[in-house]
């Protein structure tokens, strides 16, 4: 499994736009490229964090290379004040429980 962490500083007046757009983009990748999904968080430092799971780095690269310019992606970008370098993770152990 491939996991990547994204982080951003979001313009205060566009936080809701960012969350809605992020949700739409994530849904698109789940439905169209079999992404394993993502979670979005707001940290105590005010930054937004999301980690996404893919079956492999190649699957993610293929999805990004073959996706159209989504309107939601543009809205997401408009809301970002600062984007930080993504961090890739190797899962060593996993004890997260999914609840619905």
Provide the CATH architecture. Answer: 2-Layer Sandwich
Instruction: Please identify the top-level CATH class.
Output: Alpha Beta
**Helical content class:** 25-40%
How many structural domains?
1
The quaternary organization reads as: single chain
Cα gyration radius (Å): 14 Å
How many strands, what sense, and barrel or not for the largest sheet?
4 strands, antiparallel
What does this structure look like?
- The chain has 100 residues and is of the alpha+beta class.
- The protein has a single domain, classed as Alpha-Beta Plaits (2-Layer Sandwich).
- The protein is 37% helix and 31% strand.
- It has helices at 15-33, 57-65, 71-79; strands at 2-10, 38-42, 48-54, 80-89.
- Strands 2-3-1-4 form a four-stranded antiparallel β-sheet.
- Strand 2 (38-42) and strand 3 form a beta hairpin.
- Helix 1 (15-33) runs antiparallel to helix 3.
- It is globular, with a radius of gyration of 14 Å.
- The chain starts with a strand and ends in an 11-residue tail after the last strand.
